[in-house]
Design brief:
Length: about 325
């Protein structure tokens, strides 16, 4: 079982796949990269051929969502692709559970601690829309966390006319958080802002869904599949007007944010738990080895391009989009 990303990481792992296959071992290759498609297209023709041969050499290729399965399958039609999502453990779900009593009208952005990656997560777009929203919604509070340099962010926001100092400040700028601080912020917020340019299946979105948050995000990676039509408001990456409108809509309608949060919690509990992940992996291992399941598990995911009946469908909400098989 080889996990891989893109770039140098993929080339390293492709050698593991080659050696394993030459040694007679079956291989499950699992892709965890929101940039895999762009990595493929940016590569030279010989490198693209190597990528295709690696994916075809693996007995199965696991991706995080049906939408990514369709896109990877379009690049490498002969790859045998299956879906294994990310998931949260039961103790995480319990820690993130909330009755909503501690929530305020608070928008949360969670970055990575690196400027370049935070730009990819749309932080600069959020900088541009925040001042007008801050003034139009005086009840709102904002937390920008995971910043590489909180002091520099203070300076940027001050330059845009936002007061970020003092005990009554409605904007907080924080650096990298430990897990306890992150969970406290999730439990105290009502809206997650995730205006990313690149994602696959972001764990921060799973955590926000498990916390019952409403969501404003972009139509990238598995995000539309995770949120469906009722779990959030989606916009195109870089569309600052749509981003502002979406955040304003949720800030003006706490009931809508709460409704999204309720749906998101139900979705995580049904489709994105470690029980689902472990069941899907067990099915894949047995499929590769030709060992039948001892008993059917109705939570297992059907893989993209899977033979009919080989893996069972999950109990996904009916509003989730159906992606055509490659």
């Amino acid at each position: 079982h080889v996990k891989t990303s893109s770039g140098i990481n993929f080339f390293q792992n492709s050698l593991y796949v080659l050696v394993a296959r030459l040694s007679g071992f079956p291989v499950l290759l699992q892709i965890h990269s929101g940039r895999f498609e762009s990595f493929y297209h940016a590569s030279s023709a010989p490198v693209r051929a190597w990528i295709r041969s690696t994916l075809c050499r693996a007995n199965r290729v696991a991706v995080l969502s049906k939408s990514w399965g369709a896109r990877v399958g379009a690049l490498v039609p002969k790859a045998r692709i299956r879906v294994v999502p990310n998931g949260l453990a039961q103790d995480e779900l319990e820690r993130l559970a909330s009755d909503g009593s501690a929530r305020t009208s608070q928008v949360l952005f969670l970055g990575t601690g690196r400027d370049d990656l935070n730009r990819d997560k749309g932080l600069e777009d959020l900088f541009e829309v925040l001042p007008d929203l801050w003034r139009a919604h005086p009840q709102s509070r904002w937390v920008l966390a995971g910043l590489a340099d909180p002091n520099a962010t203070f300076a940027t926001l001050l330059g845009k006319g936002i007061s970020v100092q003092g005990s009554d400040s409605r904007v907080r700028c924080l650096g990298v958080l430990d897990s306890r601080m992150k969970e406290d912020l999730l439990l105290g917020s009502t809206i997650l802002a995730l205006p990313s340019y690149f994602e696959n299946m972001p764990n921060v979105l799973l955590e926000a869904m498990a916390s019952g948050l409403g969501v404003v995000a972009t139509k990238v990676g598995a995000i539309p599949e995770m949120l469906g039509e009722q779990g959030g408001i989606l916009c195109r990456p870089g569309d600052r007007f749509a981003l502002s409108q979406a955040l304003g809509k949720l800030l003006s309608s706490p009931e809508l944010a709460a409704s999204q949060g309720k749906r998101n919690l139900e979705t995580v509990s049904a489709c994105y738990t470690m029980e689902v992940v472990e069941g899907a992996l067990e099915t894949l291992y047995r499929e590769i080895l030709g060992i039948p399941l001892e008993k059917p598990n109705a939570t297992l995911l059907e893989g993209v391009g899977a033979p009919s009946g080989s893996v069972l469908r999950p109990n996904v909400p009916p509003q989730d989009p159906t992606v055509a098989r490659p």
